[in-house]
Amino acid sequence: MTPNPYLFIVIFVGVALVFPLIPLMLAWLWRRFFQPPKPGAEKNAIYECGVESIGEAQIQFRSQYYLYAIIFLIFDVEAIFLIPFAVAFTSLPVGAFIAILVFLLLLIEGLVWAWGKGCLQWER
Amino acid sequence: MSEIDEGLRRELQRQGVWVTSMQELYNWGRKNSIWPLQFGLACCAIEMIATAASRYDIARFGGEVFRPSPRQADLMIVAGTVTKKMAPQIVRLYNQMPDPKYVISMGACAISGGPFKQGYNVLKGIDRYIPVDVYIPGCPPRPEALLHAFMELQRKIDDQKLTGENKAKHLNVAQPSEFPVPSFGEHDLEPPANPDVFHPAKIERQS
Q1: Interfacial A residues in 49-108 facing B (CB < 8 Å)
Q2: How far is the CA of A40 from the CAs of B71, B148, B176, B181, B190, in angstroms?
Q3: In this structure, are strands B183-184 and B134-136 parallel, antiparallel, or unpaired?
């Protein structure tokens, strides 16, 4: 008789649950019977570098930031294309040089367009 | 050290039976995995780094896991000059460590201010604010000295009792786990020492 193939998954899940739960339970029992809890203002503080925290932890990042992210992404990809171009620059034919210049011009045109639209202005 | 009769234990060991008590097992586990808090204050920290590196290898004693967070640390090695600007941070870090926690005061500066004792900006010993378990003299102490202090601390942990009158202080409900953090006063840290912690030796002259 062959066991159900899914039985192994059940065993696996069972072991995966019990294995971490046993130490956690032992730690809980230890605390329950031996170790008195000693919470305190300093001990429960959020920040743990010895300096008192200033202000709130929940800071909002403005959604306008996505414009910069998109523009950055375009020029980041451009850099990937430019590096092999720069490495092979001396052995390139004139056609390839013109092609990369056109590519650069397109991107620069895009930057000028974004600038003209006011995308580089920080929106409040 | 143990409640088990040594002769009986040896006899059982000869028969292949290993007996222990909860307390021994607990202390054995604790003393062989003391995780120090990772911070250094001055030149003693260089010696502490040397102790952790391969030549002196504190990993032989189970103390190689220097934790960057006080939440995971058992031991604070105050390695170096404690300036008055740094003292509140050290006390706060000590407060944030979970019990049981131990302190090694490493070097002359951490013990008493050392060569800077007369200076206006140096704390004259970290034991003014937090309880210190082991003191290491030296300026700076060699890595062997830190290892010796580590072994002394292991011996101290091994002797701690789980129950009874003189049980370990972290198991005592009345023993505080946090100590007041000093603040900057007009001339000095306020208070200049914690009277509950700081018990300096009194010098009595014989006439």
Answers
A1: 49-52
A2: 13, 33, 10, 13, 21
A3: unpaired
* Joined tokens for residue B192: 């200049």
Residue of B150, B156, B160, B157 lying closest to B60 (CA atoms): B150
Q: Which of A117, A114, A100 is nearest to A72 (CA)?
A: A114
Closest Cα in chain B to A38: B177
Cis peptide before B140 (omega within 30 of 0): yes
Q: How far apart are CA A13 and CA A35, in angstroms?
A: 32
Interval A33-61 mean pLDDT: 82
What ipTM was assigned to the predicted interfaces of this complex? 0.70
Of residues B105, B108, B146, B153, the one with CA closest to residue B129: B105
Q: Note the pLDDT of residue A33.
A: 84
In this complex, do B69 and A48 lie within 8 Å of one another by their Cβ atoms? yes
Do residue A40 and residue B99 have CB atoms under 8 angstroms apart? no
> pLDDT, tens digit, for every residue of B145-156?
999 999 999 999
